[in-house]
Inverse folding.
């Protein structure tokens, strides 16, 4: 069975930037199951020779959290159903929000491995502000910069090891 990694998080945290980085030099898959896959992007990637599928969730990227109840909940639900591993992305620029708490609450209902990623840590000076995310009650998070790719290797090492 193939491994499927879904990137979940509220609008603007950087999901599509990470998705595109993981798919570098590869073609995105245009999925034929319209309706089910509308607003979701699928692609193939690999790390250290291990192949996996990546899902970029978030056709709800309208720039606000207001549509949370309908769209984000739906996207989280689909991700949990489809994925074998979940990347839950937040970002240090905007910090921890009520929506992040809500998404994490929904994700924790699943038994899928969840990798908590704090994006937009573009330099060492963002490491200290990122510690606010421990307020979620978590033991570990990964700090990355999807823009530069820094930190992405460490999380991929752990994800493929857990497949
Ligand atoms: P999405 O809505 O979660 O898919 O987020 P996007 O990938 O579309 O990114 C939202 C904005 O954040 C864009 O302007 C990106 O260029 C920017 N962005 C994404 N990743 C990073 C990062 O690591 N650092 C910085 N500074 N900006 C980022
Ligand atoms: Mg996006």
């Amino acid at each position: 069975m193939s491994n499927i990694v879904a990137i979940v998080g509220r609008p603007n945290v950087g999901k599509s930037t990470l998705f595109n980085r993981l798919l570098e030099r590869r073609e995105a898959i245009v999925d034929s199951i319209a309706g089910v896959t509308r607003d979701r992007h699928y692609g193939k990637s690999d790390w250290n020779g291990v192949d996996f599928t990546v899902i970029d969730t978030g056709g709800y990227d309208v720039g606000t959290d207001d549509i949370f109840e309908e769209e984000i909940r739906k996207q989280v639900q689909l991700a949990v159903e489809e994925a074998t591993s979940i990347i839950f992305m937040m970002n240090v620029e905007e910090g921890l929000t009520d929506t992040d708490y809500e998404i994490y609450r929904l994700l924790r209902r699943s038994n899928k491995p969840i990798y908590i990623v704090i994006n937009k840590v573009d330099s060492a000076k963002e490491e200290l502000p990122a510690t606010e995310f421990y307020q979620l009650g978590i033991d570990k998070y990964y700090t990355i910069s999807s823009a530069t790719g820094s930190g992405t290797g460490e999380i991929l090492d752990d994800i493929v090891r857990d497949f």
The helical segments are 15-22, 68-82, 98-107, 127-130, 152-162. Residues 9, 11-17, 58, 61, 119-120, 122, 145-147 surround guanosine-5'-diphosphate (ligand 1) (CB under 6 Å). Strands lie at 4-8, 28-29, 41-47, 50-56, 85-91, 114-119, 142-143. Residues 28-38 have pLDDT under 50 and may be disordered.
